[in-house]
Amino acid sequence: MPITPDEKKRLKNIAQELRLTMIDVMAWSGGAHIGGSLSIADILTILYFKYLNVKPDDPQWEDRDRFILSKGHSAAGFIPVLAKKGYFPEEELRSFNHFGSPFAMHPDSNKVIGCDVSTGSLGHGLSMAVGLGLGARYLGKTYKIVCLLGDGECCEGSVWEAAMALSHFRLKNVIPVVDRNRLMIDGFTEDIMALEPFADKWRAFGFEVLEVNGHDFDELAAAFDKAWAAGEDAGDSGGSGESGKAGEAGNAGDAVKTAKSGKTGGKPVMILANTVKGKGVDFMENNVVYHYASGDSALCEKAKASIMRES
Amino acid sequence: MSVITGTNWTAYDAATMTAREIYGRTLAEMGKTNDKIVGVTADLAKTTAIVHFANAYPDRFFNVGIAEQNLFGISAGLAKAGLIPFASTMAVFACLRAGEQIRTDIAYQNLPVKIIATHAGISFGHAGTTHHCTEDFAVMRSIANMTVICPADGIETSRAVRACVDIPGPVYIRIGRGFEPPCYKDENYDFEIGKAVTMRDGTDLTIICCGIAVLQSLEAAKTLAEQDGLFYASSTCIPSSPSTGKRSLRPLPKPAASSPSRSTMWSAASGTPSPP
User: Which pLDDT belongs to residue B4?
Assistant: First the structure.
Protein backbone atom coordinates (compact mmCIF):
# COMPACT_ATOMS: atom_id res chain seq x y z
CA MET A 1 0.00 0.00 0.00
CA PRO A 2 1.48 3.39 -0.98
CA ILE A 3 2.65 5.45 1.92
CA THR A 4 0.43 8.42 2.81
CA PRO A 5 1.82 11.98 2.88
CA ASP A 6 1.16 12.15 6.63
CA GLU A 7 2.98 8.91 7.24
CA LYS A 8 5.89 10.05 5.14
CA LYS A 9 6.11 13.27 7.11
CA ARG A 10 6.05 11.33 10.37
CA LEU A 11 8.81 8.99 9.20
CA LYS A 12 10.93 11.89 7.96
CA ASN A 13 10.67 13.54 11.33
CA ILE A 14 11.68 10.38 13.15
CA ALA A 15 14.62 9.83 10.80
CA GLN A 16 15.76 13.41 11.35
CA GLU A 17 15.58 13.03 15.13
CA LEU A 18 17.41 9.74 14.81
CA ARG A 19 20.23 11.36 12.84
CA LEU A 20 20.53 14.09 15.47
CA THR A 21 20.77 11.41 18.18
CA MET A 22 23.47 9.61 16.20
CA ILE A 23 25.57 12.77 16.29
CA ASP A 24 25.02 12.95 20.06
CA VAL A 25 26.07 9.33 20.39
CA MET A 26 29.20 10.08 18.39
CA ALA A 27 30.06 12.75 20.97
CA TRP A 28 29.01 10.79 24.08
CA SER A 29 30.79 7.63 22.99
CA GLY A 30 34.02 9.31 22.00
CA GLY A 31 33.72 8.02 18.44
CA ALA A 32 31.34 6.10 16.24
CA HIS A 33 30.86 4.53 12.82
CA ILE A 34 28.86 7.56 11.91
CA GLY A 35 28.94 7.32 8.09
CA GLY A 36 27.39 3.86 7.91
CA SER A 37 24.94 4.72 10.66
CA LEU A 38 23.63 7.80 8.86
CA SER A 39 23.29 5.78 5.64
CA ILE A 40 20.84 3.34 7.28
CA ALA A 41 18.82 5.89 9.28
CA ASP A 42 15.89 5.86 6.86
CA ILE A 43 15.87 2.06 6.53
CA LEU A 44 15.91 1.66 10.34
CA THR A 45 13.15 4.24 10.68
CA ILE A 46 10.74 2.65 8.24
CA LEU A 47 11.46 -0.82 9.66
CA TYR A 48 10.89 0.08 13.31
CA PHE A 49 8.07 2.56 12.74
CA LYS A 50 6.11 0.87 9.98
CA TYR A 51 7.00 -2.77 9.35
CA LEU A 52 8.52 -4.69 12.28
CA ASN A 53 5.90 -6.20 14.58
CA VAL A 54 7.64 -5.87 17.94
CA LYS A 55 6.62 -5.09 21.51
CA PRO A 56 9.14 -2.90 23.32
CA ASP A 57 7.43 -3.71 26.64
CA ASP A 58 7.83 -7.42 25.92
CA PRO A 59 11.19 -7.59 24.11
CA GLN A 60 11.38 -11.40 24.12
CA TRP A 61 7.82 -11.84 22.75
CA GLU A 62 8.01 -15.16 20.92
CA ASP A 63 6.18 -14.07 17.77
CA ARG A 64 7.98 -10.77 17.24
CA ASP A 65 9.63 -9.98 13.94
CA ARG A 66 13.40 -10.22 14.24
CA PHE A 67 15.96 -7.68 13.08
CA ILE A 68 19.62 -8.56 12.60
CA LEU A 69 22.13 -5.77 12.05
CA SER A 70 24.70 -7.84 10.21
CA LYS A 71 26.78 -4.67 9.75
CA GLY A 72 27.10 -4.56 13.52
CA HIS A 73 29.50 -1.62 13.54
CA SER A 74 26.52 0.64 12.85
CA ALA A 75 25.33 0.20 16.44
CA ALA A 76 25.49 3.98 16.80
CA GLY A 77 22.53 4.04 14.42
CA PHE A 78 20.76 0.88 15.57
CA ILE A 79 20.82 1.33 19.35
CA PRO A 80 19.30 4.85 19.19
CA VAL A 81 16.39 3.52 17.11
CA LEU A 82 15.71 0.95 19.86
CA ALA A 83 15.65 3.79 22.40
CA LYS A 84 13.33 5.80 20.16
CA LYS A 85 11.05 2.78 19.84
CA GLY A 86 10.84 2.65 23.64
CA TYR A 87 12.94 -0.34 24.66
CA PHE A 88 14.84 1.85 27.13
CA PRO A 89 15.06 5.58 27.91
CA GLU A 90 16.97 7.65 25.38
CA GLU A 91 18.81 9.23 28.30
CA GLU A 92 20.68 5.92 28.77
CA LEU A 93 22.43 6.45 25.44
CA ARG A 94 24.71 8.91 27.23
CA SER A 95 26.61 5.91 28.62
CA PHE A 96 27.46 4.65 25.11
CA ASN A 97 30.95 3.07 25.05
CA HIS A 98 31.50 3.91 28.73
CA PHE A 99 32.72 1.28 31.17
CA GLY A 100 29.79 -0.83 32.36
CA SER A 101 27.38 0.41 29.70
CA PRO A 102 25.31 -2.12 27.76
CA PHE A 103 25.96 -0.06 24.63
CA ALA A 104 29.21 -0.32 22.72
CA MET A 105 30.62 -0.17 19.23
CA HIS A 106 28.95 -3.47 18.28
CA PRO A 107 25.54 -4.57 19.62
CA ASP A 108 25.49 -7.34 22.24
CA SER A 109 22.23 -9.28 22.46
CA ASN A 110 23.18 -10.38 25.98
CA LYS A 111 23.07 -6.75 27.10
CA VAL A 112 21.06 -4.53 24.77
CA ILE A 113 17.32 -4.86 25.29
CA GLY A 114 15.59 -5.29 21.94
CA CYS A 115 18.72 -6.52 20.17
CA ASP A 116 17.91 -10.01 18.87
CA VAL A 117 21.35 -11.12 17.76
CA SER A 118 24.91 -10.08 18.61
CA THR A 119 26.89 -8.91 15.61
CA GLY A 120 30.10 -7.10 14.80
CA SER A 121 32.27 -9.56 12.94
CA LEU A 122 31.10 -9.17 9.36
CA GLY A 123 29.51 -11.93 7.32
CA HIS A 124 27.76 -13.62 10.25
CA GLY A 125 24.28 -12.09 10.31
CA LEU A 126 22.72 -13.63 7.23
CA SER A 127 23.59 -17.20 8.30
CA MET A 128 21.90 -16.58 11.65
CA ALA A 129 18.91 -15.11 9.81
CA VAL A 130 18.70 -18.29 7.71
CA GLY A 131 18.79 -20.39 10.90
CA LEU A 132 16.00 -18.31 12.41
CA GLY A 133 14.03 -18.63 9.19
CA LEU A 134 14.38 -22.42 9.10
CA GLY A 135 13.50 -22.61 12.80
CA ALA A 136 10.44 -20.40 12.41
CA ARG A 137 9.24 -22.45 9.46
CA TYR A 138 9.68 -25.74 11.35
CA LEU A 139 7.85 -24.33 14.39
CA GLY A 140 5.02 -22.95 12.23
CA LYS A 141 5.80 -19.34 13.21
CA THR A 142 4.97 -16.59 10.77
CA TYR A 143 7.30 -13.85 11.96
CA LYS A 144 9.74 -12.18 9.57
CA ILE A 145 13.49 -11.88 9.91
CA VAL A 146 15.04 -8.77 8.39
CA CYS A 147 18.82 -8.81 8.01
CA LEU A 148 20.62 -5.58 7.16
CA LEU A 149 24.04 -6.06 5.57
CA GLY A 150 26.69 -3.63 4.49
CA ASP A 151 27.86 -3.64 0.88
CA GLY A 152 31.53 -3.91 1.87
CA GLU A 153 30.52 -6.81 4.11
CA CYS A 154 29.55 -8.73 0.98
CA CYS A 155 33.25 -9.31 0.31
CA GLU A 156 32.94 -11.99 3.01
CA GLY A 157 32.45 -15.42 1.47
CA SER A 158 30.15 -16.48 4.31
CA VAL A 159 27.54 -13.96 3.07
CA TRP A 160 27.29 -15.97 -0.14
CA GLU A 161 27.16 -19.29 1.71
CA ALA A 162 24.13 -17.90 3.52
CA ALA A 163 22.61 -16.41 0.36
CA MET A 164 22.92 -19.77 -1.37
CA ALA A 165 21.15 -21.52 1.52
CA LEU A 166 18.45 -18.86 1.82
CA SER A 167 17.63 -19.29 -1.82
CA HIS A 168 17.87 -23.09 -1.71
CA PHE A 169 15.46 -23.33 1.20
CA ARG A 170 13.19 -20.67 -0.39
CA LEU A 171 13.06 -18.82 2.89
CA LYS A 172 10.63 -16.06 2.07
CA ASN A 173 10.36 -15.21 5.79
CA VAL A 174 13.94 -13.87 5.66
CA ILE A 175 14.46 -10.48 4.02
CA PRO A 176 18.06 -9.46 3.31
CA VAL A 177 18.60 -5.74 2.84
CA VAL A 178 21.95 -4.40 1.64
CA ASP A 179 23.04 -0.88 2.49
CA ARG A 180 24.77 -0.02 -0.80
CA ASN A 181 26.64 3.10 0.30
CA ARG A 182 29.61 2.25 -1.93
CA LEU A 183 32.28 2.94 0.68
CA MET A 184 34.34 0.74 2.93
CA ILE A 185 37.10 1.65 5.41
CA ASP A 186 39.86 1.98 2.85
CA GLY A 187 37.90 3.63 0.07
CA PHE A 188 35.24 3.02 -2.56
CA THR A 189 34.09 -0.60 -2.89
CA GLU A 190 34.71 -0.54 -6.62
CA ASP A 191 38.34 0.50 -6.06
CA ILE A 192 39.12 -1.81 -3.15
CA MET A 193 37.26 -4.95 -4.24
CA ALA A 194 34.63 -4.50 -6.91
CA LEU A 195 31.14 -5.73 -6.10
CA GLU A 196 29.54 -4.87 -9.43
CA PRO A 197 27.58 -6.24 -11.12
CA PHE A 198 26.20 -6.47 -7.61
CA ALA A 199 22.46 -6.92 -8.29
CA ASP A 200 23.26 -9.58 -10.87
CA LYS A 201 25.24 -11.50 -8.27
CA TRP A 202 22.19 -11.67 -6.03
CA ARG A 203 19.99 -12.58 -9.00
CA ALA A 204 22.38 -15.37 -9.92
CA PHE A 205 22.00 -16.70 -6.38
CA GLY A 206 18.24 -16.97 -6.94
CA PHE A 207 16.86 -13.74 -5.56
CA GLU A 208 14.34 -11.29 -6.87
CA VAL A 209 16.28 -8.07 -6.39
CA LEU A 210 14.37 -4.91 -5.51
CA GLU A 211 16.69 -2.00 -6.16
CA VAL A 212 15.58 1.17 -4.39
CA ASN A 213 16.78 4.52 -3.19
CA GLY A 214 17.44 3.76 0.46
CA HIS A 215 16.52 7.30 1.50
CA ASP A 216 13.17 7.42 -0.31
CA PHE A 217 10.31 6.26 1.92
CA ASP A 218 7.98 5.66 -1.04
CA GLU A 219 10.47 3.32 -2.68
CA LEU A 220 11.39 1.63 0.59
CA ALA A 221 7.71 1.08 1.42
CA ALA A 222 7.01 -0.42 -1.98
CA ALA A 223 9.93 -2.82 -1.56
CA PHE A 224 9.08 -3.84 2.01
CA ASP A 225 5.40 -4.29 1.04
CA LYS A 226 6.49 -6.70 -1.64
CA ALA A 227 8.99 -8.51 0.61
CA TRP A 228 6.41 -8.86 3.39
CA ALA A 229 3.81 -10.20 0.97
CA ALA A 230 6.29 -12.75 -0.39
CA GLY A 231 6.82 -13.99 3.14
CA GLU A 232 3.13 -14.58 3.85
CA ASP A 233 3.25 -18.20 2.74
CA ALA A 234 6.50 -18.92 4.55
CA GLY A 235 4.81 -20.59 7.50
CA ASP A 236 3.40 -23.48 5.53
CA SER A 237 6.17 -24.17 3.08
CA GLY A 238 8.99 -26.61 3.55
CA GLY A 239 8.16 -29.59 5.69
CA SER A 240 9.37 -33.10 5.36
CA GLY A 241 10.75 -34.23 2.12
CA GLU A 242 12.96 -36.78 0.62
CA SER A 243 15.63 -35.73 -1.77
CA GLY A 244 16.52 -39.31 -2.50
CA LYS A 245 16.32 -42.82 -1.24
CA ALA A 246 16.90 -43.14 2.48
CA GLY A 247 20.03 -45.02 3.30
CA GLU A 248 22.02 -46.48 6.12
CA ALA A 249 25.00 -44.48 7.19
CA GLY A 250 27.97 -45.22 5.06
CA ASN A 251 26.14 -46.47 1.99
CA ALA A 252 27.66 -44.06 -0.44
CA GLY A 253 25.06 -44.68 -3.11
CA ASP A 254 22.12 -43.47 -1.05
CA ALA A 255 21.06 -39.86 -0.71
CA VAL A 256 20.31 -38.38 2.68
CA LYS A 257 16.84 -37.18 3.55
CA THR A 258 16.81 -33.50 4.31
CA ALA A 259 14.31 -30.72 4.77
CA LYS A 260 12.62 -29.83 1.50
CA SER A 261 13.71 -26.65 -0.09
CA GLY A 262 10.21 -25.19 0.21
CA LYS A 263 7.69 -24.16 -2.37
CA THR A 264 9.00 -24.23 -5.85
CA GLY A 265 7.25 -21.10 -7.07
CA GLY A 266 8.54 -17.65 -6.32
CA LYS A 267 11.98 -16.49 -5.42
CA PRO A 268 13.03 -14.99 -2.12
CA VAL A 269 13.20 -11.22 -2.25
CA MET A 270 16.21 -9.09 -1.33
CA ILE A 271 16.35 -5.32 -1.19
CA LEU A 272 19.36 -3.53 -2.61
CA ALA A 273 19.15 -0.07 -1.08
CA ASN A 274 21.29 2.52 -2.78
CA THR A 275 22.35 4.93 -0.08
CA VAL A 276 24.80 7.70 0.65
CA LYS A 277 27.36 7.14 3.37
CA GLY A 278 27.05 9.99 5.86
CA LYS A 279 23.59 10.89 4.49
CA GLY A 280 22.13 14.04 6.00
CA VAL A 281 25.39 15.70 7.05
CA ASP A 282 26.73 17.51 4.02
CA PHE A 283 30.42 17.35 4.88
CA MET A 284 30.20 13.64 5.78
CA GLU A 285 28.38 12.51 2.65
CA ASN A 286 30.44 10.17 0.44
CA ASN A 287 33.45 11.09 2.55
CA VAL A 288 35.58 8.10 3.50
CA VAL A 289 36.99 10.00 6.48
CA TYR A 290 33.66 9.66 8.25
CA HIS A 291 33.54 5.86 8.24
CA TYR A 292 34.52 6.18 11.88
CA ALA A 293 34.86 9.51 13.55
CA SER A 294 34.72 11.39 16.79
CA GLY A 295 33.51 14.92 17.10
CA ASP A 296 34.05 17.94 19.32
CA SER A 297 31.12 20.18 20.10
CA ALA A 298 31.82 22.50 17.16
CA LEU A 299 31.81 19.64 14.67
CA CYS A 300 28.66 18.17 16.23
CA GLU A 301 26.86 21.52 16.03
CA LYS A 302 27.90 21.87 12.39
CA ALA A 303 26.63 18.34 11.69
CA LYS A 304 23.32 18.96 13.45
CA ALA A 305 22.81 22.23 11.56
CA SER A 306 23.25 20.33 8.32
CA ILE A 307 20.73 17.67 9.41
CA MET A 308 18.20 20.39 10.30
CA ARG A 309 18.60 22.02 6.88
CA GLU A 310 17.71 18.71 5.18
CA SER A 311 14.06 18.75 6.21
CA MET B 1 16.04 -51.49 26.29
CA SER B 2 18.71 -49.95 28.42
CA VAL B 3 17.36 -48.31 31.54
CA ILE B 4 20.22 -45.85 31.64
CA THR B 5 20.37 -44.55 28.12
CA GLY B 6 16.97 -45.54 26.79
CA THR B 7 18.64 -47.01 23.76
CA ASN B 8 17.54 -50.23 22.19
CA TRP B 9 21.00 -51.56 21.60
CA THR B 10 23.30 -53.12 24.12
CA ALA B 11 26.90 -53.04 25.21
CA TYR B 12 27.37 -55.96 22.87
CA ASP B 13 26.51 -53.65 19.95
CA ALA B 14 28.81 -51.01 21.35
CA ALA B 15 31.61 -53.52 21.03
CA THR B 16 31.10 -53.56 17.29
CA MET B 17 29.99 -50.02 16.38
CA THR B 18 32.04 -46.86 15.96
CA ALA B 19 31.39 -44.00 18.36
CA ARG B 20 29.89 -41.92 15.55
CA GLU B 21 27.52 -44.71 14.60
CA ILE B 22 26.40 -44.89 18.23
CA TYR B 23 26.03 -41.09 18.26
CA GLY B 24 23.78 -41.12 15.19
CA ARG B 25 21.56 -43.86 16.58
CA THR B 26 21.37 -42.24 20.01
CA LEU B 27 20.37 -38.90 18.48
CA ALA B 28 17.69 -40.54 16.33
CA GLU B 29 16.20 -42.06 19.47
CA MET B 30 16.35 -38.79 21.35
CA GLY B 31 14.41 -37.18 18.51
CA LYS B 32 11.40 -39.34 19.33
CA THR B 33 10.78 -37.65 22.65
CA ASN B 34 12.24 -34.20 22.04
CA ASP B 35 10.88 -32.33 19.04
CA LYS B 36 13.11 -29.34 19.81
CA ILE B 37 16.12 -31.29 18.63
CA VAL B 38 17.10 -30.45 15.04
CA GLY B 39 20.03 -31.73 13.01
CA VAL B 40 22.44 -29.77 10.83
CA THR B 41 25.42 -30.84 8.78
CA ALA B 42 27.62 -29.63 5.95
CA ASP B 43 27.49 -32.55 3.50
CA LEU B 44 28.77 -35.00 6.09
CA ALA B 45 25.52 -36.66 7.17
CA LYS B 46 26.72 -40.13 6.38
CA THR B 47 30.30 -39.54 7.50
CA THR B 48 29.28 -38.22 10.92
CA ALA B 49 26.35 -40.69 11.15
CA ILE B 50 23.84 -37.91 11.86
CA VAL B 51 22.16 -39.53 8.84
CA HIS B 52 20.21 -41.72 11.30
CA PHE B 53 18.53 -38.59 12.63
CA ALA B 54 18.12 -37.18 9.12
CA ASN B 55 16.27 -40.21 7.85
CA ALA B 56 14.00 -40.35 10.89
CA TYR B 57 13.15 -36.62 10.91
CA PRO B 58 13.77 -35.09 7.48
CA ASP B 59 11.57 -32.11 8.32
CA ARG B 60 14.01 -31.00 11.00
CA PHE B 61 17.27 -31.89 9.40
CA PHE B 62 19.14 -29.30 7.36
CA ASN B 63 22.05 -30.07 5.09
CA VAL B 64 23.73 -26.79 4.19
CA GLY B 65 26.19 -28.17 1.66
CA ILE B 66 29.93 -27.81 2.03
CA ALA B 67 29.83 -24.57 3.99
CA GLU B 68 30.97 -24.88 7.60
CA GLN B 69 30.77 -21.18 8.47
CA ASN B 70 27.15 -21.25 7.38
CA LEU B 71 26.62 -24.53 9.27
CA PHE B 72 27.41 -22.93 12.61
CA GLY B 73 25.80 -19.56 11.82
CA ILE B 74 22.58 -21.36 10.89
CA SER B 75 22.86 -23.47 14.05
CA ALA B 76 23.06 -20.26 16.11
CA GLY B 77 19.94 -18.97 14.34
CA LEU B 78 18.05 -22.22 14.94
CA ALA B 79 18.94 -21.97 18.63
CA LYS B 80 17.75 -18.35 18.63
CA ALA B 81 14.42 -19.66 17.32
CA GLY B 82 14.15 -21.84 20.43
CA LEU B 83 15.48 -25.14 19.11
CA ILE B 84 18.36 -27.42 20.17
CA PRO B 85 20.56 -27.93 17.11
CA PHE B 86 23.00 -30.83 16.87
CA ALA B 87 25.61 -29.76 14.34
CA SER B 88 28.02 -32.34 13.00
CA THR B 89 31.09 -32.12 10.87
CA MET B 90 34.73 -33.15 11.18
CA ALA B 91 36.55 -31.64 14.15
CA VAL B 92 39.03 -29.67 12.05
CA PHE B 93 36.32 -27.92 10.05
CA ALA B 94 34.38 -27.09 13.19
CA CYS B 95 37.12 -25.65 15.34
CA LEU B 96 39.31 -24.07 12.67
CA ARG B 97 37.29 -23.37 9.50
CA ALA B 98 34.28 -22.18 11.48
CA GLY B 99 35.99 -21.32 14.74
CA GLU B 100 34.77 -17.75 14.73
CA GLN B 101 31.14 -18.68 14.12
CA ILE B 102 31.39 -21.10 17.06
CA ARG B 103 32.99 -18.53 19.33
CA THR B 104 31.04 -15.45 18.31
CA ASP B 105 27.63 -16.64 17.11
CA ILE B 106 27.20 -19.64 19.41
CA ALA B 107 29.35 -19.36 22.53
CA TYR B 108 29.34 -15.58 22.97
CA GLN B 109 25.53 -15.66 22.89
CA ASN B 110 25.56 -18.82 25.08
CA LEU B 111 23.28 -20.72 22.71
CA PRO B 112 22.45 -24.42 23.22
CA VAL B 113 24.13 -25.66 20.06
CA LYS B 114 25.58 -29.16 20.46
CA ILE B 115 28.63 -29.61 18.26
CA ILE B 116 29.33 -33.28 17.72
CA ALA B 117 32.64 -33.39 15.92
CA THR B 118 34.01 -36.59 14.46
CA HIS B 119 37.43 -37.50 13.07
CA ALA B 120 39.14 -35.72 15.97
CA GLY B 121 42.85 -35.98 16.64
CA ILE B 122 44.70 -38.12 14.14
CA SER B 123 41.92 -40.69 13.97
CA PHE B 124 41.66 -40.08 10.21
CA GLY B 125 45.39 -40.71 9.90
CA HIS B 126 45.68 -41.74 6.28
CA ALA B 127 43.68 -38.70 5.16
CA GLY B 128 46.66 -36.51 5.92
CA THR B 129 47.11 -33.29 7.83
CA THR B 130 44.18 -31.47 6.22
CA HIS B 131 41.80 -33.84 7.99
CA HIS B 132 43.66 -34.18 11.29
CA CYS B 133 42.65 -32.08 14.26
CA THR B 134 45.07 -31.89 17.15
CA GLU B 135 44.06 -28.32 18.00
CA ASP B 136 40.45 -28.71 19.04
CA PHE B 137 41.03 -29.09 22.78
CA ALA B 138 43.11 -25.92 22.84
CA VAL B 139 40.58 -23.99 20.76
CA MET B 140 37.39 -25.21 22.38
CA ARG B 141 38.63 -25.10 25.97
CA SER B 142 39.57 -21.46 25.54
CA ILE B 143 36.09 -20.42 24.42
CA ALA B 144 33.79 -18.93 27.06
CA ASN B 145 30.63 -20.89 27.94
CA MET B 146 31.80 -23.98 26.07
CA THR B 147 31.50 -27.43 27.66
CA VAL B 148 34.06 -29.82 26.18
CA ILE B 149 33.52 -33.57 26.30
CA CYS B 150 35.83 -36.33 25.10
CA PRO B 151 34.15 -39.70 25.61
CA ALA B 152 36.30 -42.77 26.21
CA ASP B 153 34.28 -45.10 24.00
CA GLY B 154 30.95 -45.62 22.27
CA ILE B 155 29.12 -46.27 25.51
CA GLU B 156 30.33 -43.01 26.97
CA THR B 157 29.53 -41.23 23.70
CA SER B 158 25.92 -42.27 24.09
CA ARG B 159 25.84 -41.11 27.70
CA ALA B 160 27.42 -37.78 26.77
CA VAL B 161 25.13 -37.13 23.81
CA ARG B 162 22.10 -37.76 26.00
CA ALA B 163 23.40 -35.66 28.86
CA CYS B 164 24.44 -32.63 26.80
CA VAL B 165 20.84 -31.71 25.96
CA ASP B 166 20.28 -30.65 29.57
CA ILE B 167 23.11 -28.14 29.45
CA PRO B 168 21.65 -24.72 28.62
CA GLY B 169 24.71 -23.55 26.68
CA PRO B 170 26.99 -24.84 23.91
CA VAL B 171 28.68 -28.24 24.09
CA TYR B 172 31.54 -29.68 22.05
CA ILE B 173 31.77 -33.48 21.96
CA ARG B 174 34.79 -34.82 20.11
CA ILE B 175 34.89 -38.37 18.87
CA GLY B 176 37.12 -40.23 16.48
CA ARG B 177 36.55 -41.81 13.12
CA GLY B 178 37.10 -45.50 13.53
CA PHE B 179 36.17 -48.25 15.90
CA GLU B 180 37.53 -48.04 19.42
CA PRO B 181 37.29 -51.01 21.74
CA PRO B 182 34.99 -50.23 24.67
CA CYS B 183 36.49 -49.62 28.08
CA TYR B 184 33.20 -49.66 29.95
CA LYS B 185 31.44 -52.98 30.46
CA ASP B 186 28.02 -51.43 30.04
CA GLU B 187 26.09 -48.19 30.57
CA ASN B 188 25.66 -48.89 34.25
CA TYR B 189 28.14 -46.42 35.64
CA ASP B 190 27.90 -43.01 37.14
CA PHE B 191 28.23 -40.62 34.21
CA GLU B 192 27.79 -36.99 34.95
CA ILE B 193 29.17 -34.13 32.86
CA GLY B 194 32.11 -32.66 34.74
CA LYS B 195 32.62 -35.61 37.02
CA ALA B 196 35.55 -37.99 36.78
CA VAL B 197 35.06 -41.73 36.75
CA THR B 198 37.39 -43.93 38.79
CA MET B 199 38.32 -46.77 36.51
CA ARG B 200 40.62 -48.57 38.92
CA ASP B 201 41.78 -47.99 42.47
CA GLY B 202 45.38 -47.91 43.58
CA THR B 203 47.87 -46.48 46.06
CA ASP B 204 51.08 -45.70 44.20
CA LEU B 205 50.29 -43.87 41.02
CA THR B 206 47.49 -41.91 39.41
CA ILE B 207 46.85 -41.69 35.71
CA ILE B 208 44.43 -39.01 34.57
CA CYS B 209 43.22 -39.25 31.02
CA CYS B 210 40.29 -39.05 28.63
CA GLY B 211 39.14 -40.38 25.30
CA ILE B 212 40.91 -43.29 23.70
CA ALA B 213 43.77 -42.97 26.20
CA VAL B 214 41.57 -44.43 28.92
CA LEU B 215 41.71 -47.96 27.61
CA GLN B 216 45.45 -47.65 27.09
CA SER B 217 45.92 -46.33 30.61
CA LEU B 218 44.01 -49.27 32.02
CA GLU B 219 46.37 -51.57 30.19
CA ALA B 220 49.34 -49.58 31.48
CA ALA B 221 48.02 -49.71 35.04
CA LYS B 222 47.63 -53.44 34.76
CA THR B 223 51.17 -53.85 33.43
CA LEU B 224 52.61 -51.61 36.13
CA ALA B 225 50.81 -53.51 38.84
CA GLU B 226 51.84 -56.88 37.51
CA GLN B 227 55.38 -56.27 36.33
CA ASP B 228 56.84 -53.21 38.00
CA GLY B 229 55.71 -53.95 41.50
CA LEU B 230 53.65 -50.80 41.80
CA PHE B 231 51.10 -52.16 44.16
CA TYR B 232 48.05 -50.52 42.70
CA ALA B 233 48.32 -48.31 39.70
CA SER B 234 45.09 -46.47 39.22
CA SER B 235 43.29 -44.76 36.36
CA THR B 236 40.69 -42.04 36.22
CA CYS B 237 38.62 -41.09 33.22
CA ILE B 238 37.66 -37.42 33.09
CA PRO B 239 35.34 -37.25 30.13
CA SER B 240 34.20 -33.66 30.32
CA SER B 241 35.03 -30.13 31.37
CA PRO B 242 32.02 -27.91 31.99
CA SER B 243 31.64 -24.17 31.91
CA THR B 244 29.87 -22.45 34.77
CA GLY B 245 28.45 -25.17 36.95
CA LYS B 246 28.69 -27.86 34.33
CA ARG B 247 31.50 -30.30 33.82
CA SER B 248 33.90 -31.32 31.19
CA LEU B 249 37.56 -31.00 30.42
CA ARG B 250 37.83 -27.49 31.61
CA PRO B 251 38.56 -26.92 34.35
CA LEU B 252 39.73 -30.35 35.33
CA PRO B 253 36.94 -32.10 37.22
CA LYS B 254 37.46 -33.27 40.74
CA PRO B 255 38.40 -36.90 41.28
CA ALA B 256 35.41 -39.14 41.51
CA ALA B 257 35.47 -40.94 44.82
CA SER B 258 39.09 -41.36 45.72
CA SER B 259 40.70 -39.50 48.56
CA PRO B 260 43.81 -37.47 47.69
CA SER B 261 46.00 -39.84 49.65
CA ARG B 262 45.16 -42.70 47.39
CA SER B 263 46.20 -43.10 43.85
CA THR B 264 43.48 -43.78 41.38
CA MET B 265 42.92 -43.96 37.72
CA TRP B 266 40.47 -41.36 36.54
CA SER B 267 38.78 -41.09 33.26
CA ALA B 268 37.88 -37.54 32.47
CA ALA B 269 35.44 -37.32 29.62
CA SER B 270 34.04 -33.94 30.45
CA GLY B 271 34.89 -30.65 32.09
CA THR B 272 33.33 -27.36 33.01
CA PRO B 273 33.25 -24.40 30.70
CA SER B 274 34.75 -21.41 32.37
CA PRO B 275 32.65 -18.31 32.91
CA PRO B 276 32.75 -15.79 30.07
Answer: 47
